[in-house]
Write the structure tokens for this entry.
Amino acid sequence: AVRPFSDIPGLWNNQLANLYTFWKTDGFRNVHRMMVHNFNIFGPIYREKIGYYESVNIIKPEDAAILFRAEGHYPKRLKMEPWTAYRDYRNRKYGVLLKEGEDWKSSRIILNKEVIAPNMLGNFVPLLDEVGQDFVSRVHKKIERSGQDKWTTDLSHELFKYALESVGSVLYGERLGLLLDYIDPEAQRFIHCITLMFQSTLPMLYIPPGLLRLLRATPWKEHVEAWDGIFSHADYCIQKTYRRLRQESSMKGKYPGVLASLLLMDKLSIEDIKASITELMAGGVDTTSITLLWTLYELARHPDLQEELRAEIAAARTSTQGDMVQMLKRVPLVKGAIKETLRLHPVAVSLQRYITEDIVIQNYHIPAGTLVQLGLYAMGRDHRIFPWPEQYLPSRWLSPGGHYFQALGFGFGPRQCLGRRIAEAEMQIFLIHMLENFRIEKQRQVEVRSSFQLILLPEKPILLSIRPL
Ligand code: HEM
Ligand code: 2DC
């Protein structure tokens, strides 16, 4: 017989004590490891209640399949109260990330056509390819200036710029100029504000932002400052495109970028377009840059794998005569490497949905309306799901068999990551250019762990050396 909801194991009946232990053990930064720990103690399903939110946590791919089948027509994630509270406070519209119900669906359908439809890749790839080539030139210059035959650095700042330049060129159809020696201080501030925004969100996941606002507490103040910085720079970029669009009557043939396409299409209100473009611009920085940093870190630890990837890339370049759109179809191992990075170092610790119908998971009844979380980080490191989980093996994604609900780094279904196609193309192109030009080496053997800062980030700087081939 199916067991009742109240029988699900877990520590859900003492929320204040939980919050306290959480605080004392620096649980904030260890959410992902605490989830692994809980799955070890309770098994593949457990209930928890920390602060003001309660959830059922699951880990198995086949249970993820049940969860996503029950997500309904308007899939809903854990509500990011601090993010909506800021918009309410400043009277700004929600973009696709924060909308719900029919309002979300209608925006999302329009945005899908311009942002994630496969036929857009042909437009995005040439723009991203140019950014990738410029990044390589910049690295060559840095190596020259170092006076050695290599450049040793914490690449994260360069990767933030690469990521913003990439997503900016796709959204605005023009370059922001972030790979030049002197960059716009406003763009630098934008990058800083995104990190600050994620960090200041953290305490507010457990203490209601409304309360912190009343108390004029630091996290709320920082959070407002961060979003203000994000919106003001995005507004500036949007205005620039808007003016250019009104001046240039004919932009014949040339792809004008996502923003201009949306404005010309005239199906979403200007305010809606602005809200979603801002979210896309902000969502496109830390996510791809950190995933690329982790990938370089793994490649530095696996020189043989680097050679294998180089061989695949060289063959793809020859057989397609350098046509990047075609090349991307012939680099399965590069794609496997990105999946493998997201398995071990996912950006999102969990995927979550409020289920819209009753379901049964692990023989427990879960009623409609419950918040169910799939522990993505824990799943990626479970040996029953991924044999030898601690090993970085991109080739595990090449084996046939579909990998049923295993590659979930970008989420799933109609509410999955809207920036997925951009992110994938941008990361593949980056790796192709870097591996064609450089060897990546590590500084001593150091294990770097993840730290939860709303998204998972390396707990300490990763130092790499880059050498010309
Ligand atoms: C949503 C991951 C890059 C924009 C999401 C979600 C995940 C995710 C897990 C939630 C999906 C779900 O609930 O099923 C990632 C990863 C990235 C990445 C791993 C790169 C490695 C980007 C980029 C952009 C972006 C480059 C913008 C260009 C968004 C937006 C949403 C979203 C707008 C909300 C979509 C909606 O609610 O309808 N992402 N993301 N992401 N992401 Fe990404
Ligand atoms: C954070 O417990 C931990 O892609 C929470 O580009 C559950 C949760 C809910 C939603 C997740 C969030 C976590 C991590 C960051 C995500 C977010 C949905 C979208 C967002 C995964 C796992 C992200 C980074 C977006 C951010 C766009 C923003 C900058 C405008």
